[in-house]
Structure formats: C-alpha cells, structure tokens
Amino acid sequence: MKKVFLILAAVMAMALPAFAGQVDIDHFLILPSISGVSGFISNPSACVSPAGRFSLGVHNFLFKADYGIMDRVEAGIAIDFGATNGFTEIIKATDINLKGIILKEDDMFLNLAAGIERFPINVFDDLTDGGLKIYAVASKKVLDMDVSAGVKKKLGVNSIGISDWDFMFDLSKVINDTMLAVLEYDEKQFNAGVKISFNYNLCVDFFVVGLNNLGRADGIGGFLRDYFVFGITYLQ
Fold first, then answer.
1. Is 16 left (phi over 0), alpha (psi -120 to 50) or beta?
2. pTM metric for this prediction
3. Range with the lowest mean pLDDT among 101-110, 153-162, 163-172?
4. Torsion, CA 183, CA 184, CA 190, CA 196, rounded to 10
5. What DSSP state is assigned to residue 43?
6. Helix (H, G, I), strand (E, B) or coil at 64
7. Domain limits of the chain?
8. CA pair distance 107, 227, nearest whole angstrom
9. CB–CB of 42/61 below 8 Å?
C-alpha cells in the first residue's frame, strides 16, 4: 500500500506544470463531482455554474454535463458508460441533476443550496434504491478555504419516508493557487483528493474514496479498481 501512495504522489507532482492557471476556490466548486452535480469529490457544493456556462466531466466511465441558468440554477445529466452498451441501454443509464441556490454568500453570511441528484430518465425501471437522492448543503468561505456541511436523503420505491437523512461534510483549501485539496465525509465513508487546475478551463482530479475501508483493498489492482478515481473536468 505504501508503494501505491508513493506512485500517486509522484503522479500528482508531475501533473503540476509551470503554466497552471491561478483560480479561486469557487472555480473548483462549480466543476462536476463524481456524482455529476457540481461540487467536491462525491458531495455537492453550495455553488452552481454561472448563467450560460457549461461544465463537462469524466470520472472513470461516468460522463456528466452541467449548465448554469440565471446564476441560481444548475441543470445537468450523468451517463454511466461503464455499466452499459448500446443506445437503448445508454438512455436507461442516463440521470438528471438539478441544483438551486437559496442564499448567496455575497448577499448573506453563507451559501445555501438544495437539489436532486441522479434522477433517472428511465423512471419505470430505475426508480429504485439506487443513486437517486435529494440534498441540502451550506458553505462558508474563509480566505482560501471552504467549509461545507449538509444532509442527503436516498429516495426510491423502498425509501420514500422523510427520516433517515445522511450527513455530509467537506473541508477544502486552495494550495499554490492551482490545486484544491479536499477532505470529505460522504454519508458513511471518508474520501480525500486533489483537483489540479491546468488552466482556467481544464482541471484534473485524483481522488481516493472509502479511506476507512482501505485495509480491505486487494493489492494495487484492488486499490485502483475500488478506491482510486481519476477524472478530467472542463469549464467553458
């Protein structure tokens, strides 16, 4: 396992070119997360894509695209190419994300947003206890850091009650103007990683998910398959 972390550290160091562009923390937090909605690693942020701007992302085999509406609403799709083949199956594996800003930190003390994550297009077959969730999240910036906390609720045919909300928390900090380091609690597991800005438009992600379960990794292959996530995100 030590060799894995040494390899990751070397890759991250080489991925920091001299031409990397300086960006603020909000720029990182409007890029797609693993789940598709703009945010951290798996958790959504309390920011949305600016009006008329779109962002794209790929993490493993999950493609996502988000679009900003009126600076307060973000709509997007997520398509899992790794779980399907063929046009019909791709449609079935397509989900919708929607997030809206309730409070803005520029006007109030903090950001507050709420939304729905991974709503399936194929509602007749896929409205089960899968990835469909609703959430609310609040955040506060402190210099080049962001502290975020919120709740998620899984929805589906067997979980339509109002109880059983899960907690989420993110602590992130900009390093050297070009990299965002993130420590995250996502419902029942801890995640960590970095988002590296190559320029204003392009960012690459290196995440390790399920830190509390790393001891179960079956060697380097198991670690890369089950715990390591590489991604590329783009903002236009």
1. beta
2. 0.83
3. 153-162
4. -60
5. S
6. strand
7. 2-235
8. 39
9. no
Closest CA to 188 of 154, 163, 221, 218: 154
Contact 22, 235 (CB under 8 A): no
Those residues with Cβ within 8 angstroms of residue 136's Cβ, 6 or more apart along the chain or in another chain: 112, 113, 114, 150, 151
Q: Give CA 56 to chain center in angstroms.
A: 12
Q: Which residues contact 13 (CB under 8 A, 6 or more apart)?
A: none
Q: Which two tokens stand for residue 79?
A: 């398509």
Average pLDDT over every residue of 55-69: 93
- Contact between residue 46 and residue 112 where contact means Cβ atoms under 8 Å apart: yes
Distance between CA 39 and CA 186 in Å, rounded?
12
List the beta bridge partners of residue 222.
Answer: none
The 3-class secondary structure across 126-157, one letter per residue, is HCCCCCCEEEEEEEEEECCEEEEEEEEEECCC
CA pair distance 179, 236, nearest whole angstrom: 19
Residue-wise pLDDT for 216-233, tens only, equals 888 888 898 889 999 999
Superfamily of domain 2-235: monomeric porin ompg (2.40.160.40)
Closest CA to 98 of 134, 125, 139: 134
Strands 111-120 and 94-103, by their bridges, are: antiparallel
Say whether 83 sits in a helix, a strand or coil.
Answer: helix
